[in-house]
Description:
Layout: H1 2-43, E1 51-58, E2 61-64, E3 71-75, E4 86-95, H2 102-110, E5 119-125, H3 141-177, H4 180-198, H5 226-233, H6 237-250, H7 253-262, H8 265-274, H9 278-285, H10 312-321, H11 331-336, H12 341-348, H13 381-389, H14 406-409, H15 413-420, H16 425-429, H17 436-443, H18 448-460, H19 468-477
Parallel strand pairs: 4-5
Antiparallel strand pairs: 1-4, 2-3
Helix pairs in contact: 6-7
Amino acid sequence: MRNIMKHFLLLVLLTGSAVTAQADLLDRMRLEDTLKNRIEDAFRLYDPKAKALIRFDYKTFSGTLPGTSIETQGQVNPYNIDSGDINRVTIEIFTDLEETPAEAKDYVLRVIPIEKSKVFVEYKKLKTQFPKDIPRPHLDPEALSTIAHDTMSTMAKTMGAIFGGCMLLCFGFMFHQNSKKLKEFKSQIQLLTTALSENASGPAPTPVAATKAQGSSAYGGGGGGSKEFGSLKNLQLESLKEIFADCYWCREDAYAHWLWKNIEGAQKKSLMEQFSLMKDYSLYFVTIQPHEMSYHEHPFYMDPQSLLWTSQEDLSAQIRKDFSLWHFVSPMRQQNLPLSLEERLQAVQTKPEGKKSSFDSKQQSPHRVLETKLSWGEISSEDEAALYSHPEMVPVSLRENIQTLVWLAQKDDAFIQKTLSRYDARSLASAWVGPEAVLKKLEAQLPEKKLKLLLNYREKTAPSRHSDVYASLVAEGFKNEAA
């Protein structure tokens, strides 16, 4: 029986290691995909067909895993990957441009949220797969038939082996399920697991992403279904105050908007009346696209710590004085605390048994500076004409709130020519809206042939201020503006 228990525990440890490695791999894949998309979106203004390849070189961690005696060799921390865990980022951008403008290179570097000393960017020219002067290779039909036959034969053998293995596993599982000894063994394992959890060195850190039964997400990930709305309606006022305070200090503003959309009117009214932070914060987060998460399902919010006025920075300072306080903050706070890897490892290995939280609840941190977007509505052609004649009437800091081609027309001729050259006549016609004086200034920077095409397309299409090209041209007008 002892040998069976040893083998079972070894299997559990191996399975846990595989899940941890998979979580680490998924985190890195999400990081690389997100950065790749940001770079391609930024470079699309200069070359819509450009593609980016990214390679990360991560730091590794060797030592004993928290709360266990398991030694790791060269493993990346699966719970959090920040800029300090990255040694080098190599980026290759493939583009059709003969020469990449310095402005485009600078723009790419600005969208990469990593220390520039760690970033290496290389621009390469895209090559066609089959140049015109090189004949395409001729494929032998007999060779293709042989390859297809061999492939199908190999696949059939593989599928047969897999099917046979699955059948053996099913029969073995059914046999052992009906075994009385196995049931007794399961009971003993449950008792052993309970004893180990009671004698552990403290609660394990909350994972960044772990799967629930039936594929639902863990705390922090997207939720699923009407059950979550029911759980929100059952939350008490003190719990709601703690959740929204955590969103405020952790800058999870999109999640705060989602929570606001799904709580009841009476709950919103109570928050506004009894939590002074909510008035300004709600005006800010409703301008952000809502994003569903599931931190509100965590049991922590059944007994909140009332850390309504303590920022992440001040909370980290208190935890550095007593690392056991780590176990008394919410998962949302834990994921966003500005602590180093060494500090986090030290915190998760503390033993909170028998202790009570000793946070300084009287401490009030400085509030965040929330820049709420102004709503101007659509301005008239007369207003645009006045802006074109007297642009100084609007401070530079407020210009981004007024979407108009006036700001592009205020640029020098070379800048306008370069900007308009990125769009064809049909695309420009869809965005050719504004006062006559503004459009004349822009038309003067177009080649004669392109201008004729633009005017012809404009007669056949209805230009709109809501088109993507219009938004891009307006954004060009804001470039190089002093804040």
